[in-house]
């Protein structure tokens, strides 16, 4: 089974919100134009809906990129480190730059890895 990504789920939510928002604006434009007696109100409302949706696509892509870069990639790095350490590779280092909770989590995980490695080395040397 294919693993679902959180970023894909978030992207669909944001994209869905932009579609609903642009449809809402299009409906409002239609009612405003038709109540003012403007000819071609429906055509103008459809075009405004399409233009607004296109204008929303760029921010949606930028938001998706930022979430991917600043959150999901860091989580994937920590997840990969967990997999490596769980298989016994205590030399696998976790290096995450930043000043956020995910960097703090990675730093704590790195301290734990070093402690585990030190304990394993002492056990192998017969010091414990």
Helix/strand layout:
Layout: H1 6-35, H2 41-86, H3 101-125
Characterization of the model:
This protein is mainly α. It has one domain (6-125). The chain has 3 helices and no strands. The mean pLDDT is 88.
Order of helices and strands: HHH
**Subunit arrangement of the protein:** single chain
Query: Structurally, how many domains make up the residues?
Result: 1
The main β sheet shows up as: none
Any low-confidence stretches, pLDDT <50, length ≥5? Answer: none
Number of strands: 0
State which percent range the strand residues make up: under 5%
Radius of gyration: 26 Å
Structural class given helices, strands, pairing?
mainly alpha
Portion of residues in helices? over 70%
Distinct helical segment count:
3
Span between termini: 44 Å
Shape: rod-shaped
Mean pLDDT: 88
Outline of the structure:
With 128 residues, the chain is mainly α. The protein is built from three helices and no strands.
Name the descriptors:
single chain; 128 residues; mainly alpha
